[in-house]
């Protein structure tokens, strides 16, 4: 049962945004240990919960991963852990695993989730070996202590560490450090949505702050109640809520929407309705539509529901090559079914 628990509950840490169907890598995803000294109210691995705890021996984990990698069953490693000891001791073991993998010639993808409060020196050593690094923020500042009372200080132990990682990423890129390692695939963090009574406004405001400081990916994990936890009788977060918050964050992260533009979509309680926020934005800003694909800039074209950044760039490139874009060009680019959804938001004015 031991290793099954380590692998099963590693899935609580997300490694991809749920809007995208295909993961980039087939990951060997595991915890270092299932023992934890924390009392996070939502977590099935917290010290509240009674079950047989287990852990990986470092050499055993390295050998197991290498065997699976050579057998082409996995493409990369996602390594996380409970906080079973001092943060530095836990991260030291994570680093020991990835150092051994690199020394054995493994040059593939490694994603590490670090511990809150880890020292700057160890954070640097982890960043040298990992392609992607995360540190979970869990909740907005005002509700963090409510659901994770012993996880440290929200600002000092988590946000400051994320800022250190951003500074390291910039330093590595400026000095032309190349993969494997050196945070070449960016920095991520994760919220547990619905474990407290936080509003979508609070989550989105925090997400905007994180994006502004340079965090590359923000994952939303909808709260699920687990037996033996203090929140076992709490209602799970609706799947649609996690989806809508994720979509709204992606609009800020990828599409160039501002926080103020997203905030205008919230109801009087600071919550998103169960509707695609990009469509909701178009409905609330009808004065902007239809978007002229022959003249309007990229930042407006990308606000057309059904058109993403890649398609918007293709449209800009195409119109630079010819005098006028037509319906047929867009149908060819999008496909007819997608075009039907898009056409009411676009126009083609003559020069």
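Sequence proposed for the structure above (351 residues):
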């Amino acid at each position: 049962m031991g290793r099954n628990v380590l692998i099963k509950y590693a899935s609580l840490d997300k490694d991809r945004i749920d809007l995208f169907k295909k993961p980039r890598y087939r990951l060997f995803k595991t915890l270092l240990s299932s023992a934890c000294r924390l009392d996070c109210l939502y977590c099935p691995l917290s010290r509240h919960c009674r079950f047989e705890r287990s852990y990986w021996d470092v050499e055993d984990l390295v050998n197991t991963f290498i065997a699976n990698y050579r057998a082409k069953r996995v493409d990369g490693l996602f390594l996380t852990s409970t906080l079973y000891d001092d943060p530095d001791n836990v991260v030291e073991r994570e680093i020991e695993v990835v150092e051994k993998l690199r020394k054995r010639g493994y040059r593939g993808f490694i994603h590490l989730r670090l511990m809150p409060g880890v020292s700057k020196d160890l954070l640097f050593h982890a960043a040298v070996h990992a392609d992607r690094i995360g540190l979970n923020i869990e909740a907005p500042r005002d509700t963090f202590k409510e659901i994770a009372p012993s996880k440290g200080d929200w600002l000092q132990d988590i946000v400051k560490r994320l800022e250190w990682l951003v500074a390291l990423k910039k330093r590595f890129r400026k000095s032309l450090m190349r993969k494997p390692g050196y945070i070449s695939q960016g920095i991520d963090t994760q919220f547990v949505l619905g474990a407290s009574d936080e509003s979508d406004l609070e989550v989105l405001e925090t997400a905007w702050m994180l994006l502004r400081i340079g965090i590359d990916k923000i994952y939303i994990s909808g709260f699920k109640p687990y037996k033996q936890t203090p929140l076992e009788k709490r209602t799970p977060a609706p799947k649609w809520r996690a989806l809508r918050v994720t979509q709204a964050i992606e609009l800020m992260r990828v599409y160039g929407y501002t926080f103020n533009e997203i905030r205008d979509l919230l109801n009087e309680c600071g919550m998103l309705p169960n509707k695609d926020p990009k469509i909701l934005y178009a409905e609330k800003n009808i004065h902007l539509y239809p978007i002229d694909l022959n003249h309007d800039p990229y930042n407006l074209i990308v606000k057309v529901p059904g058109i993403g950044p890649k398609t918007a760039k293709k449209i800009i490139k195409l119109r630079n090559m010819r005098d006028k874009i037509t319906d047929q060009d867009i149908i060819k680019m999008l496909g007819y079914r997608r075009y039907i959804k898009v056409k009411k938001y676009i126009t083609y004015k003559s020069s």
